Predict the structure.
Amino acid sequence: MDHHRPRRAGHRPPARDGLGSLPDQDGTLQEDYAVAELSGLSAREGWSRGLRLIVRRVKPSRRHLANLTDFEKKTGFKYSVIATNIRKMTRIPGSHQAQWLDALHRHHAVVEDRVRTNKAMGLHNLPSKSFTVNQGWMLAANLAADLDAWLRLLALHDQDELADAEPDTMRFRIYHLPARLATHARRRHLRLAPDWPWTAAFVLAWQRLTGLTTVT
């Protein structure tokens, strides 16, 4: 089968939520999402041979409304196009399909989120004239990003406003909270402000982390 041949008009294969061939993705279908391949329809000069165009349409969310084109407003969908030279991936069944490639590129997009997060954790202070300083600062920023990610995964995964919170939000709500460290009867107590909106979330995270099994 020629996978670069345009599909018939009106045929809109459903998009997939994940990569079904990968162990951590279920590959379930997404409602109101569609993916199609437009390879062979572009007449632009200078494009690499074997380049595939994968178009995806989705129902626009509220954050998309201000940036929709006239065509998107007319059709009621937001469109995006992916250009890739991947024909198929070795030993991965179905990796030639447009839906699989669309899910692959969307899954890879989290890299940009992690870069943004790491910059917020200190990478924006780079570079220094000293390679050793850059090396140490890079390690410290990556450790901070890892700790932030594991905290949300292990202790705040079911907290809607914190599970996917940005670093600045976590600093304001969890890391920099109004509290007082006091000592009584040779024991140290962290006294939290009762009127702070995120006190309960902090206590929940503390209890879950201290309740984890010790690594041996």
Remarks:
- Residues 15 and 34 are 5 Å apart (CA to CA).
- The first strand starts at residue 14 and ends at 16.
- Residues 131-155 form the longest helix (25 residues).
- DSSP finds six helices and six strands in the chain.
